[in-house]
């Protein structure tokens, strides 16, 4: 498997026992030995705002004493936009992770549990109007932005959108790279995007077109020089951040240094943050 030819499994016949809030897997794509994406059917009644997350999972192993099984659920950003008929997720594979050690083996036709209660702060409603929108992501933190980038509202609200995605190796960037490429050919979004997107992928542990942590590249001003931007201003710039706890705190500090304030659904401001995972 190379980074340019992810392994995609074809749909199979639905099977398996009925689960509470069950949805059927329609497609699975393995990007690396640590990353995969999958699509599932969408409950007709599920409404969400692009950028939100839901709880998904599988039935847990039977309790050794009682034999009872409980759902094993984890938070997952919905990577597909709110208009899509299906739901897409982009996932890590933690080899000893209670959920993803099993979830990584799902096949089309299998069922997963999806609790239909979307929530989250990486939504347009939590930001005040602006001209330029920054999406800062590391690893699977690109998932909410994969949703927002495919939402026409993003392109109607902003003149320019900058997606930064930092991963260890080039292969880890491939999901995002293909997503960005597909936007231009998308019948719905292509015309709206029309030169407004700057994609800024960086790697920390392998040589690539741009090496380095996004925090260092912001502090040194290299990002701005590369993009031909003077800096970040609370009048024009808005930002959404999704990465590890450390990344989120560092970017918060940088954004606050430029005079931006953290927003929330109840009180929109200039930037919003969400953890890509706990730990
Ligand atoms: C708001 C929110 C949204 C999330 N969205 C996503 C998503 O879209 N995709 C996704 O893969 N995960 C996402 N996560 C993490 C997810 O909830 C689980 O932690 C992950 O699926 C692993 O589950 P697990 O049971 O296998 O291992 P866990 O016991 O949950 O995690 C084991 C350890 O693995 C590491 N880890 C967990 N998730 C990640 C990750 N995504 N990237 C790097 N290291 C990780 C952490 O160090 C963690 O302590 C999200 C978490 C939160 C809080």
UniProtKB/TrEMBL annotation:
Residues 1-20 are annotated as: Disordered. It catalyses: 2 reduced [2Fe-2S]-[ferredoxin] + NADP(+) + H(+) = 2 oxidized [2Fe-2S]-[ferredoxin] + NADPH. It comes from the Bacteria. InterPro entries: FAD-bd_FR_type (IPR017927), FNR_bac (IPR033892), FNR_nucleotide-bd (IPR039261), FNR_type-1 (IPR051930), OxRdtase_FAD/NAD-bd (IPR001433), Riboflavin_synthase-like_b-brl (IPR017938). Its EC number is 1.18.1.2. Residues 18-125 form the FAD-binding FR-type domain. One of its GO terms (molecular function) is ferredoxin-NADP+ reductase activity. It is an enzyme of class 1 (oxidoreductase). The keyword Cell cycle does not apply. Signal peptide: none annotated. Its cofactor is FAD. The keyword Transferase does not apply. Keywords: FAD, Flavoprotein, NADP, Nucleotide-binding, Oxidoreductase. Belongs to the ferredoxin--NADP reductase type 1 family. This is ferredoxin--NADP(+) reductase.
């Amino acid at each position: 498997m190379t980074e340019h030819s992810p392994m995609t499994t074809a749909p199979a016949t639905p099977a398996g026992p009925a689960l509470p809030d069950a949805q059927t897997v329609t497609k699975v794509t393995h990007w690396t030995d640590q990353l995969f994406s999958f699509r599932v059917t969408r409950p007709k009644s599920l409404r969400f705002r692009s950028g939100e997350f839901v709880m998904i999972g599988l039935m847990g192993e039977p309790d050794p004493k009682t034999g009872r099984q409980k759902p094993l659920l984890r938070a997952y950003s919905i990577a597909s936009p709110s208009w899509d008929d299906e739901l897409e997720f982009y996932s890590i594979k933690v080899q000893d992770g209670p959920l993803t050690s099993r979830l990584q083996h799902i096949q089309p036709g299998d069922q997963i549990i999806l609790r239909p209660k979307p929530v989250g702060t990486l939504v347009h409603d939590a930001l005040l109007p602006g001209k330029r929108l920054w999406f800062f992501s590391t690893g699977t933190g690109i998932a909410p932005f994969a949703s927002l980038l495919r939402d026409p509202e993003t392109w109607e609200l902003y003149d320019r959108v900058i997606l930064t995605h930092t991963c260890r190796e080039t292969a880890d960037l491939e999901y995002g790279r293909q997503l960005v490429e597909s936007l231009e050919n998308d019948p719905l979004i292509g015309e709206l995007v029309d030169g407004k997107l700057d994609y800024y992928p960086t790697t920390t542990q392998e040589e690539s077109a741009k090496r380095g942590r996004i925090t260092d590249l912001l502090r040194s001003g290299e990002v701005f020089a590369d993009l031909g931007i003077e800096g970040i201003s609370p009048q024009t710039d808005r930002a959404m951040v999704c990465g590890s706890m450390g990344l989120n705190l560092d970017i918060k500090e940088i954004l606050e240094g430029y005079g931006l304030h953290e927003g929330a659904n109840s009180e929109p401001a200039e930037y919003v943050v969400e953890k890509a995972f706990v730990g």
